[in-house]
Write the C-alpha cells for this entry.
Amino acid sequence: MKEKFKFTFNLALLVIWAVLFAGIAVKAPGFLSYNYIVNVMLRNIVEIGMVALPMTLIIITGGIDLSVGNTMVLAAMLGGMAAAKASDIAGVLVTLLTGAVCGLLNGVLIAKAKISAMVTTLASMFLYLGMARGVSHGDSVYSYTFSEYMGTMSFLGIPLQIWLYVLLALCFTVLLKKTAFGRKLYSIGLNPHATKYAGVNTEKILVIIYVLCGMICALVAFIFLGRFTSVKYDAGTNFNLKVITVVVLGGTSINGGIGDMKGTIIGTLIIATLNSGLTVLNIPIDVQTIVQGAVLIIALISYAVVNNRARKKRIIKVEAPDALS
Amino acid sequence: MENATILRLQDIVKTFPGVKALGGINFNLKSGEVHAICGENGAGKSTLMKVVCGVYRPDSGSIEVNGKKESFSNPMEAYRKGVSIIFQETSLFEEMTVLENLFLGHEITKKAGPFTVIDYRAMTIRAEEIFRRLSTQIDLHVQIKALGMAQKQMVEIAKALTFDANIIIFDEPTASLTQREVTALFAIIRSLKAEGFGIVYISHRMEEIFEICDRVTVIRDGQYISTKFTSDTDKDELVADMVGRKMGSYYPKTETEIGDTLFRAEHYYDSGFVTDISFYARRGEILGFAGLAGAGRTELMESICGLAPRTAGRLFMAGNEIEVQSYKDAMARGIVYVSEDRGKYGLIADMSIENNIALPQLDKLVNKFDILNTEREKELAGRYMTDVGIKAPDGEFLVTNLSGGNQQKVAVSRALALKPELLILDEPTRGVDVNAKAEIHKIISGLTQQGLTIIMISSELPELIGMCDRIYVMKDGALAGCFDRGEATQEKILSVALETKSAAG
Amino acid sequence: MGKKKGFLTTEFYLAVFLAAILLFMAVAAREFYSINNLMSLLNSFSYILISAIGMNLIILTSNIDVSAGALISVVCLSIAALGKQGIPFAGLMAAAMVIGAVLSTLNGLFITRLKIPAIVATLATTQIFQGVLPLTVDGSIYDLPASFTWLAFDAKIFGIVPASVLICLIVTVAALLFVKYSRFARKLYAIGNNSNGARLSGIRVDRTVVWTYTIAGALFGISAVIIATAGQRVTTTMGSGLEMTFIAAVVLGGTNTAGGSGKILGTVIGAFILAMIAPAINYLGISPDWSDAVKGAIILISVVVGAAKYIKKKRVIDDPAARERSAA
C-alpha cells in the first residue's frame, strides 16, 4: 500500500516536471539547447542537489540540518586558505576534515546529548557562519587548482560536477532503498524507541548520517568554490532552506519515516527547471521565488490532504487497545 | 436529603471496534459514601470512569449527576458540573507550577482597569485554604515535575476541590504510593467523606477496599456482576466475583518434558527498583511472572535483556555466565524479549509485516555491500508468518492495519525468527480479543514442545495458571513467592501479590 | 516537600553571565559605555527583543516561525510605500501591526488547518513573502520624507534616548504582564506541555495557536517599523535572516523548542546578549568578523548546558518503573 502511495506521488511529481519543462520549452525554444540545459539548468543546481541527498537521509530519521550551507562555506574557506598557504593537497584535506568535524559536532549533540536537531543545527549554523566570517575577516577566499578543476572541468562534454551528482544520486538511492542501513533510517524515523528495542544502535546511525552530510558539504565546497572562483562567508545563508525545500518538495515528510531519494531527485529537477526556465522567459528572479514557494505550498497541501485521510482511517484502530488497558 | 444519590449510571454500553468494553453497567453513588469499583485488569473499570467524565462517549445508557442527566464532552466540563477524576497517570502539566495547574482553564480573575487579569492573590488564598483542609503542605510555586507521585496526587485532589466538585473518582490511587503515603491518603478520603463528598474508589486491592470503602461494585469483562456492602461480604467472596467460575480448562497447555536448567539469574539488581532477584528457568518450561502493575516485572526483564542498566547480579545460560551489555548481546545469547507496549516499544506500526520481522536481524540478510536480500527477507518472514498463523493478505501489509491479535503475532514471529532459546513475553495477550488470545496460547504451548523456554509476564491470573509450569510472584521489585503448577490458585497468588508484608517464597 | 523555588534558574545564570560581561567591558573597554554606542545598542536590542517576544509565544506552543525575517521585509516595504505618501508615524505603526498580524495569521491557519509542521509551512511562506516584495517595488523605496524617519531622528526622549527603546519597554512590560496575568498565556504553556492534555482540559488548541501567530505578527510589525524608519531608504531585504536571531534569543533565554517552558525574562536577557556581542567585540579590539562565531558558540554552550540538566531529569522520567506504573 505504501509502495503504491509513493509511486503515485513520484509519478505526479514527474508529470509536474515534464509539464513545466515542456511548457517552458514551447514558450522559449532557446531553453531546449543542450548548452543551456547542461551548463545553466543542471550546473546551477548541482550543489543544492548534492546536499539534498544526505539531507533526505537526515529528514527521514526525523532530524534536520540547518547548517549545511554554512558547513559548505566554512569548508571551502578553510580549504582555500590552506591551499593558499601550503598546497592543494592541504586544501583538499582541510576541506574534507572541516566537513567531517562540522557534521560530527552536529551528530554527537543530536544523538548523544539528545538536543533537538533543529536547535543544535541552528546554533551550529551561527557558529560555522561566524567562524567563516572570522577566519576570512569578511574577505573573499579564492579558488585553487583542485577546486577549479572540480568546478569547471568537463568530461565527455558534460561538466564534471554533473557526473559526480549522477554518481552520488545513484549511490544514495541504492543506500536508502536497498541497504539494511537505509531500512534502519526509515525505522528510526517511524519509531525510534521500537527501533532501539529491536537491537539497532540508533545513536551510531545518527552520528554517521550527520558526518556523511558534512562530508558531502565538503565535496560540494570544492565545486562551489571552483564555479564561483571565490567565496564569501555569507554565501551559504539561503542555501540551507533551499536544500530543505528540495527535499520536502520531493515528498519527504519532515516528521520522518516517509520519503525516498527519487522524490528528492525529481524535486531537484523541478526547482532547476523553474529557476532556469523562468530566467529564460525573462521573468524576474523574485517571481521565481514566489513560484517556488507556491509549488512547495501546493505540494505540502496535497501531502497533507493525503496524510490526513490516511490518519483518519487509522484513528479507530488506535483507540481500541487503550480501552483494554 | 442526607445520603442522596449524587451519581447514577444506568446501562452504560461502550464498544470499541471489535471489543465490547462495557456491556450495560449500573452504578450509583451516595453523598458521604466511598464506593469501590473492583475487577481484574482489563475488566473495564478505567473505561467506565473515562465514560463518566467525558473522555469517551457512551454508545448508550444514561449518566445522572446530582439529579440531572449529563453528557460531558471533556473532563473540564465534568469538573464544572461537579465530577472530578484523579487519573492513574496524572493529567497535570509538568512544566507549570502547582498553582497554575490547580486553576488551569478556570483561573480566578479580577478587573484591572479595562483588562481582565488573573488574580494570583485570590488563587493563592483559595489554594492555601484547600491544602489546609487536606492537611498538606505543598509549595504552590514549584513546578509539577519537581513533585513526587504522592504530591502530584495531592495536587490532583486539590484541583478537584477548586471546582466545588462533590464527586471525586480515584483511579487506582495507591498504585504508586508507599505505605505511609497510603495512610495519609486514606485520612484525606475519610475527611472528604465526612464533609459529604461522594467518592468512587477504583482498585483491586482487597485490604484497601475493606479498610476505606462502604460499598463495592464488581465488574468482570465489561459486565456488571454485583454490588455489596463491605460489611456484608469478605475477601473470598469478592475474589470469586472478580474471577468468575471460568477456570483454566480452556488453556491449551500440553504437557512437555521439562529438561535441565537453561537460564539462571543470581542476586540480580537493576538500577534501583528491582532488588535481589534469583530465579531459574528450565528447558521446555513456561515460567510465569505475576504481580500487580508496577511490581517490577517489566523492569527486571528489560534489564536482563540489556535494555535497561544492571547494577549487580549474575546471569547464566546453560551453566555458563553471560555478560549482557546491550540487547544485541542478549539476542546473540538466545534471549529475546517481546515488549508489553507494542505501539511504543514493540513494532514499527507504519512498516510492513516482513520489514518488522526482519528488523532485528537485517545485518544477517545483507551481502558484503550491505545490500538487503529482499528474497531472503520475504522468505524468512513468510516462514514465520505461516508458522504463527498471521492473518494478512501478504507480507507487505502494514502492521498498523492489523488487529491487535495479529500485531502480537507479528511481534512473536519477529522474536521466533531470531531463533531464541529463551523467549520473554511481556503481557502477550494484552489488548487482544478472545479468539486471538486462544491462538496465542496455542502458539506458546507449541513452542515449548520444540524445546523453547518461555517466560511470560501477565496480569491475567487465569492465563498464568492455565499456561505456566511455575509462577513467580513479584511485589515491590522483589520476588514474593513461587508456586508450582499444581498448587497455584488465583486466591493464593493474589494474596501474595497484595500482601502488605511479603510472604515467604 | 516545601522546597523553596530556587534562584538558580536559567534566567539567573544568564543574568549573572550578562552582568559579568558588562563588568568586564567596564574594565577592559570603557568606551563601550559611550552614549552613542549604548544608544545604538539599545536600538538594535529593541527590535530584536520585540520580535523575539513574539517568537517566544509561538515557541511556547511548540511551533516555530522561520518566515519572520521575510515577513518583516514585507512590512518594511509596505509602510515605506505608505510613508512616501506622508502618512504620519501613528498611521505607519498601525498599518505595520495590521499587516504583520494578517500575514502571520495566514501562517497560523496554514499550520493548524492543514496540520503541516510549522517549520515547513513557514519555510514555504518565507519564499512567498520574499518573492512578493520586489514585484511591487524595484529594489528599494528611497527619498522618504522626514515624517517617515521621525522615530529614528526626531523622537528622542530627553533628546538622547531613542524612542524605539520606549516602545520596546512598553511591549516588554506588557508581555511580562500578559504572560503572568492573562488566561490566554496559561493556555499557551498548557498546549506546549501536552497538547492532548490541553484539549482534554477544554482548551481549543488550534484556535489558540492561530491567535498566537496573530499576536506575534503584530509584534513583528512593530519591529519592522523600527527597522524601516532608521533611514530614508527601505530595501527589499531589510529583515532577511533576522528570524534566526529571534529564535536564537529565545533559545538562549532558556526556552525549550519542544514548547511548554521558558520565560519572557530569559528572552529579554538573551536578546540583550545577542545585541551586545557585536559592539562588545568591536570595542575589545577584536575584529567584528568574529561576532557571529561568538554568538554561535554562546548559543551552543547554553543549549548543551541546558541539555545536561535536562538529561539528568529525563532519566527519572524514562525510568521503566515509572513507565509501567503509568502504563498499567
